[in-house]
Amino acid sequence: MKDRIRKVVVVGGGTAGWMSAALIKRVLGGAVEVELVESESIGIVGVGEATIPPIQHVNAVLGLDEAEFLRETKSTVKLAIRFENWRVQGEQYYHTFGAPGKSQAFCHFHHFWTRAQSGGFKTDLWDYDLNYLCCEENKFVKLQAQDKMWDMPYAYHFDASLYGVFLRKYSEKRGVKRTEGLIEDVNINAESGHVESLVLQGGGLVEGDLFIDCSGIRGLLIHQKLNTGYDDWGHWLPCDRAMAVPSERFDETLPFTRSIAHSAGWQWRIPLQHRNGNGLVYSSRHYSDDQAADILLNNLESKALADPKIIPFRTGRTRRQWNRNVIAVGLSSGFLEPLESTSIYLIQSAIVRLLHLFPLAGVTPELTGEYNRQSKREYELIRDFIILHYYLNERDDSQFWRDTRNMDVPERLTNKIALFRSNGTLVQDHLDIFLEPSWLQVMLGQGVMPQDYHPIANQLSDEQLQEKLVKTMQLKKEPLPKIPGHDQFLEMFCKQD
Ligand SMILES: Cc1cc2nc3c(=O)[nH]c(=O)nc-3n(C[C@H](O)[C@H](O)[C@H](O)COP(=O)(O)OP(=O)(O)OC[C@H]3O[C@@H](n4cnc5c(N)ncnc54)[C@H](O)[C@@H]3O)c2cc1C
To answer: What is the pTM of this model?
Structure first.
């Protein structure tokens, strides 16, 4: 069917719903009408508090004032994730948003480092990464340096409910219509199979031309009405449940997320200005909910502020995330456990993709086909990156870790690991949000050491190589004494005049 799109209906008012409404309205302005329907009686999932740096693009497009954003959403800064007990118990490594050293054409810094290691000049690669250095000293400031040497990419931890409130205020101010109501039925056009309208409890009708299904895990339109298939990836990522609980804040807020592996899952700790967000992601085949609650509550280190909330999930993706005139965004489009904080990014990316391919003149198979191809690839690349953390473990304390170590993984991932192991080569796939430094840190952190390095690293003499490394570390550390503590930064930056 090829009908001009005049009205977009967003189904659901969680992070996905309000991000979609805000971005569509901001970018398309008066070209389309936007109405969002949500039900307070159902509420939102209420988790999803750690982000990755591309969130900055959303804020920039929306034209947000960063200080106001931090204040209103009780945000803290996120420079990294610290993985604890992932390779073996008692060990930790960081996946920072930065990069070690400074790369030169054709040859990443880690090749020089690898050569130096093999020649006996042993240093820690992370000591060449400013994000890491700031994490270790609990520091942060927005650096204005031109030189890539001092790039310090960052994201945020925010309160998911406050983020929704913030985006709602933003969207309503710009003309998004919000309708409170419980959707009881969905009307389909008998001829085209397209969704025509939503039927609300009490009989109200919300009509539209294009529907963004942001109704959460249930997938009210995409699954319950259109029966779009689902690719289940549970055989690669066996965790299928989460338990979340807020707790009192600590005296100091860290500028990174903690991810602490347990015997059959892992626990997150997300520092916010007013509290900590905590949760356990686990496999229900290995832990009962009571066991999970014990593990979570015994590892909080500050007082719980509510009862734990259980969230079952199914890892995988909706097969056609754009089906007819319905686009699934957020949890309705699939779910990958929050190990690398990618779900909010996937919301952003879905909306950006939709805006790029927006069917103003009507939905066509070419547009839906392209959208679905890109979405599939993007989901699969993130999936592989998450599998990497499990697959490369060397823990021997439980069947869970032995099983994930011995599973067959997607071929693309096997090849990436083999390439890196052989000579440190990293492959940048199109549409992979995780760039080479991310793959590098997780592979090294999980214990894969390259057996060789790029020949360009041989162009330096031993003395020149050592000098390069010493100088790089000195330069990286240069700004540290002037960088304030993370809490000090938040206090100064968020202060209202
Ligand atoms: C345990 C866990 C931890 C996570 N951690 C992270 C993280 O750290 N970082 C990250 O990026 N992502 C994370 N995520 C993902 C993140 O929470 C979601 O991507 C995000 O919250 C978006 O959710 P949503 O808007 O799709 O769904 P929801 O928040 O569930 O919203 C669904 C909306 O649909 C409405 N609705 C549903 N049915 C009806 C109906 N019949 N009538 C009317 N309205 C209806 C509801 O009222 C609600 O407004 C996590 C997810 C889980 C499960």
So the answer is: 0.98
